[in-house]
């Protein structure tokens, strides 16, 4: 304890332990600001405010203390004789006749306490990550880690190759980062998801009306934050849980190798039917659409809860389609965006659904349809549909038309595939700020697929919301049809 006199110096009577905390002698008469804050981690603006507050409080009416109390720090870091400490301060006015004659300051060295608290927080965080990883199959985690690293590297390359705000580059950064966030939420990787969401906010600022300047260094630093969070998960996976890359390989099989399978493989090799062997091995690693989407569908409950909605019922129409190993990541990434979009944008809140005479539970139907060599997967929820009125206003803002134009509804609806177009006004850590369906279209086109809207105008109750379905198409090299496999 010590008191500050009207001239801003320390009163001769002070607690002896003050000398121990600051490793100093002859403290009496020293300027309080210099004594307390030399070597502090506070900025120059904060220090100026503190000095001004002390000067304004002492010798003035007591009410000045309460007006300026927020400027007086209650905790800060400091370097004292090359030792880093954390000090806690408590400021009290000594009043005579409503005038503050002195300030009483209590100083506590809380360095060890904060270290213990930090250690406890880190331990809790690590235990949380352990719980997130514990029941996740090795092949799923390793695939997630690999794809995340690839998206981050793509963003790094894009940032390093660009010298200014480029809308296509920003759209790419957004797509990749939002895809990472969707995959994080699929597996419940909350710490990594939160970091990714903050980086998305930086990207959002780049394309706002008052866009911030292109700053590659900051963007690369943001990437490092995500890489650091990913590395934390990797550390827990390998060092804490004792898993490794090799364990992923061992658990990668989705089938039992029977004697018949071994016999068939040997027969293919002996007859040199290399093409058929390649098809045979692809078939062994192929999985159904239901299996491919199981984790994403399971994650919708937590997403709906965050939005104060009931978990939707997801129905996948039975089919005999198998998704090849080479296409499974693509399908997961695409449907991560689509299904999150259904829950976030498409399905109404529980109260809205009840008011509209609908079931409390939203419905999403996924209908795979095989037509020649193309697999078309139609996805539709039973929400209100596309907000055409909102999209029309977005088109005006983008200069695609003016308020007196009357573009066809289908032309307006197609805007949802444009980067940055969203009918949602409030951003949360689920919404993609208009990047979701843009990402879907880009990912599919890169693999020879496509995405299209099917408007159900006949079901519209007004011209504001139009029910629709989303149809994604996959070319033949990404899937197996039952008859194709049977032919081999």
- The rounded distance between the terminal residues' Cα atoms is 87 Å
Q: Count the helices. How many? A: 19
What topology, given as strand order, has the largest sheet?
6-8-9-13-11
Count of individual beta strands: 14
Q: Report the principal-axis shape.
A: elongated
Give the amount of beta strand, in percent.
15-25%
Main β-sheet description: 5 strands, mixed
Helicity, in percent? 40-55%
* Gyration radius from CA atoms, angstroms: 31 Å
Summing up helix and strand content along with how strands pair, one would put the structural category as alpha+beta
Uncertain segments: 247-255
Mean pLDDT: 87
Description:
By secondary structure, this protein is α+β, with helices and mostly antiparallel strands. Helix content is 51%, strand content 17%. Helix 7 crosses helix 14 (325-346) and helix 13 packs parallel to helix 14 (325-346). Mean pLDDT is 87; it is low at 247-255.
Descriptive terms for the model:
single chain; 488 residues; alpha+beta; 5-stranded mixed β-sheet; 4-stranded antiparallel β-sheet; 19 helices; 51% helix
Question: In summary, what is this structure?
Answer:
This protein has 488 residues and is of the alpha+beta class.
Please outline the helices and strands:
Blueprint (H helix, E strand, L loop, with lengths): L1 E3 L12 H6 L9 H6 L6 H14 L5 H6 L6 E6 L2 E14 L2 E11 L1 H24 L3 H23 L6 H21 L2 H17 L9 H25 L4 H6 L8 H12 L3 H12 L1 E2 H18 L6 E4 L4 E3 L1 H22 L3 H6 L7 E9 L2 E8 L4 E2 H10 L11 H5 L22 H11 L3 E6 L9 E2 L1 E8 L3 E3 H5 L2
Parallel strand pairs: 6-8
Antiparallel strand pairs: 1-4, 2-3, 3-4, 5-7, 7-14, 8-9, 9-13, 10-12, 11-13
Helix pairs in contact: 5-9, 6-7, 6-9, 7-8, 7-13, 7-14, 8-9, 13-14, 14-18
């Amino acid at each position: 304890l010590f008191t500050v006199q009207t001239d801003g110096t320390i009163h001769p009577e002070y607690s002896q332990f003050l000398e121990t905390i600051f490793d100093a002698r002859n403290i009496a008469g020293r300027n309080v600001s210099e004594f307390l804050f030399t070597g502090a981690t506070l900025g120059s603006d904060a220090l100026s405010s503190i000095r001004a507050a002390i000067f304004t409080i002492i010798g003035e009416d007591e009410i000045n203390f309460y007006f300026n109390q927020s400027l007086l720090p209650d905790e800060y870091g400091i370097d004292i004789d090359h030792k880093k400490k954390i000090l806690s301060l408590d400021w009290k006015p000594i009043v005579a006749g409503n005038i503050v004659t002195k300030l009483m300051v209590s100083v506590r060295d809380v360095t060890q306490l904060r270290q213990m608290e930090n250690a406890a927080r880190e331990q809790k965080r690590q235990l949380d990550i352990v719980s997130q990883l514990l029941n996740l199959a090795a092949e799923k985690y390793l695939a997630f880690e690999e794809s995340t690293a690839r998206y981050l590297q793509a963003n790094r390359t894009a940032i390093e190759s660009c010298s200014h705000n480029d809308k296509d580059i920003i759209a790419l950064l957004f797509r990749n980062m939002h895809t990472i966030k969707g995959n994080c939420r699929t597996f419940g990787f909350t710490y990594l998801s939160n970091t990714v969401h903050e980086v998305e906010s930086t990207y959002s600022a780049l394309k706002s009306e008052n866009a911030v300047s292109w700053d590659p260094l900051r963007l690369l630093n943001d990437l490092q934050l995500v890489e650091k969070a990913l590395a934390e998960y990797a550390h827990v996976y390998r060092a804490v849980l004792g898993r490794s890359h090799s364990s992923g390989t061992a658990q990668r099989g989705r089938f039992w190798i029977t004697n018949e399978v071994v016999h068939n493989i040997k027969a293919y090799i002996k007859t040199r039917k290399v093409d058929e062997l390649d098809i045979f091995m692809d078939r062994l690693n192929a999985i159904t659409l239901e299996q491919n989407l199981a984790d994403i569908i399971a994650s919708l409950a937590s997403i709906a809860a965050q939005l104060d909605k009931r978990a939707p019922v997801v129905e996948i129409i039975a089919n005999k389609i198998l998704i090849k190993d080479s296409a499974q990541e693509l399908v997961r990434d695409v449907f991560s965006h689509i299904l999150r979009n259904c829950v976030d944008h498409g399905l109404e809140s529980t109260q809205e659904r009840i008011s509209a005479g609908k079931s409390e539970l939203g419905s999403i139907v996924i209908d795979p349809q095989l037509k020649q060599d193309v697999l078309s997967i139609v996805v539709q929820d039973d929400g209100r549909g596309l907000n055409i009125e909102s999209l029309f206003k977005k088109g005006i803002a983008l200069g695609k038309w003016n308020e007196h134009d009357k573009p066809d509804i289908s032309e307006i609806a197609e805007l949802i595939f444009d980067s940055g177009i969203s009918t949602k006004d409030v951003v949360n850590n689920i919404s993609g700020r208009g990047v979701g369906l843009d990402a879907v279209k880009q990912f599919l086109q890169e693999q020879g697929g496509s995405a299209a809207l099917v408007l159900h105008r006949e079901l519209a109750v007004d011209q504001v919301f139009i029910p629709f379905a989303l149809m994604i198409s996959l070319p033949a090299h990404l899937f197996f049809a039952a008859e194709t496999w049977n032919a081999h």
